[in-house]
């Protein structure tokens, strides 16, 4: 049991019930106390409570009125009345409002223990039933995305949805598969790796709170839907919104905010021709020109001057053609470099672009031994020194490669060859090392440390820190004391 709320105006009785509950065989994560119905409703409206033990006669708002008001809650707790009044009418009235049990004072320890054991069984049974229902709905949604559902299948899925969520409206959320996600306390259905993305079905009433708390970035949100028959449409909307979020590097995009750009035939023809042009130029002195134009198309899509969907298709065509064209030109032991990831697997376009340039550099590097020259090694050493001196600034690989006068793609490959990791991870690791030092050696706030090591967004900093160190910055600091 997660939470127990004790509503009783007499302090000694309230404390006594709390003590008996805490010593019972049922583990309770948190026991809350308050003096009357008004205080109780403030708590109940602000958070989910599993169980309420309450008196009837209390000032400001008595138990009867509290029971009536609790019926308006979206998530109703199990309620036990503990009263000094042996009045049949009171008991009947309370039972009308869905009270689990009515117990007379003075209450014994054994009675409290029995109540909690029975309530725990009931709640666990409800949780198990809900999990089974959600699991069934999960398979139905995934099946719908991967094949054509019959009308009968849709009817069954709609029935299943209503059994779990009633008439509630929901949204579909499409997020990058790499995003960290915990199913703990999630109030919807989580579908992992549906066509390379994670999908979430979530009742609308939970969405705002979830969107504020989630660490997931660059996700798309469908319009709200009233029944399961619109689920396929919602999935498509969420995916379109996710494409927009990916290209524009925005934390969240709703379907209603999506770009409505329609390309002309000439634009589509131009993008088709650019695929072949890019692959041809990438191994010549025009490589940087090709990369700049490629980045320019992403820039245009980000600012509504190209279709995000078409830019993604163009990218996938470039990747496929690169593999086909250079398959015979790369040494056998280097052919593994030709493997690539779909751009949509990355959180956003910036993360993909960094990896894409590195990938291009590796392929080009295999066509020449130039990247292992002593001159380039000296330049990489100079670059590493520059990073050490400027890691706290808004630094990227283009700036550093320009600083040492080295081709971007060549720099990317030579840097990884020299350091063992790519530029992004090298900079990230350096920043986190310095953050760890500041956490141990100073009393600076975590927000200030984030800024000192080059992260303007402290939430982003905390996510990266936990991914690398396995614990949050605050927990790391505590562990070092």
TrEMBL record:
Name this protein carries in UniProt: Stage 0 sporulation protein A homolog
Function text: May play the central regulatory role in sporulation. It may be an element of the effector pathway responsible for the activation of sporulation genes in response to nutritional stress. Spo0A may act in concert with spo0H (a sigma factor) to control the expression of some genes that are critical to the sporulation process.
Residue numbers carrying 4-aspartylphosphate: 55
Gene3D superfamilies per UniProt: 3.40.50.2300, Homeodomain-like
SMART domains: HTH_ARAC, REC
Domain (HTH araC/xylS-type): residue spans on this chain: 381-479
PANTHER family: HISTIDINE KINASE-RELATED, TRANSCRIPTIONAL REGULATORY PROTEIN HPTR
């Amino acid at each position: 049991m997660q939470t127990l709320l004790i509503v009783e105006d007499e302090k000694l009785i309230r404390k006594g019930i709390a003590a008996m509950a805490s010593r019972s065989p049922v583990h309770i994560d948190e026991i809350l106390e308050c003096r009357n119905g008004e205080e109780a409703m403030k708590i109940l409206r602000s958070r989910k409570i599993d169980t309420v033990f309450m008196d009837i006669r209390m000032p400001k708002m008595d138990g009867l009125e509290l029971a009536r008001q609790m019926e308006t809650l979206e998530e109703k707790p199990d309620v036990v009345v503990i009263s000094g009044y042996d009045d049949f009418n009171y008991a009947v009235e309370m039972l009308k409002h869905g009270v689990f049990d009515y117990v007379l004072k003075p209450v014994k320890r054994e009675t409290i223990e029995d109540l909690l054991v029975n309530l725990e069984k009931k709640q666990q049974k409800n949780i198990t039933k809900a999990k089974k229902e959600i699991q069934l709905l999960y398979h139905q949604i995934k099946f719908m995305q991967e094949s054509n559902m019959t009308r009968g299948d849709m009817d069954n899925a709609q029935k299943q949805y209503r059994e779990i969520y009633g008439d509630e409206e929901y949204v579909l959320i499409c997020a990058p598969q790499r995003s960290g996600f915990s199913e703990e306390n999630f109030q919807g259905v989580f579908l992992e790796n549906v066509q390379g993305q994670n999908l979430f079905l979530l009742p609308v009433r939970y969405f705002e709170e979830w969107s504020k708390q989630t660490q997931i970035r660059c996700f798309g949100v469908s319009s709200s839907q009233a029944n399961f028959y619109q689920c396929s449409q919602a999935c498509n909307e969420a995916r379109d919104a996710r494409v927009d979020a990916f290209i524009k590097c925005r934390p969240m995009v709703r379907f209603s905010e999506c770009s409505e750009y329609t390309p002309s035939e000439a634009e589509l023809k131009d993008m088709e021709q650019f695929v072949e042009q890019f692959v041809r130029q990438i191994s010549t002195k025009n490589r940087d020109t090709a990369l700049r134009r490629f980045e320019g198309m992403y820039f245009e899509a980000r600012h509504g001057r190209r279709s995000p969907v078409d830019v993604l298709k163009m990218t996938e065509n470039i990747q496929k053609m690169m593999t086909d064209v250079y398959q015979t030109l790369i040494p056998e032991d280097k052919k593994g470099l030709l493997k690539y990831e779909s751009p949509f697997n990355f959180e956003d376009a910036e993360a993909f672009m960094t990896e894409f340039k590195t990938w291009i550099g590796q392929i080009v590097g295999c066509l020449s031994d130039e990247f292992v020259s002593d001159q380039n090694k000296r330049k990489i050493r100079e670059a590493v020194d520059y990073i050490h001196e400027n890691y706290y600034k808004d630094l990227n690989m283009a700036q550093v490669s320009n600083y040492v006068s080295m081709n971007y793609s060549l720099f990317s490959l030579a840097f990884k060859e020299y350091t063992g990791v790519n530029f992004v991870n090298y900079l990230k690791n350096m920043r986190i090392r310095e953050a760890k030092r500041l956490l141990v050696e100073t009393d600076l706030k975590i927000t200030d440390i984030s800024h000192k090591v080059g992260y303007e967004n402290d939430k982003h900093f905390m996510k990266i820190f936990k991914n690398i160190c396995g614990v949050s910055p605050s927990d790391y600091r505590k562990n070092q004391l």
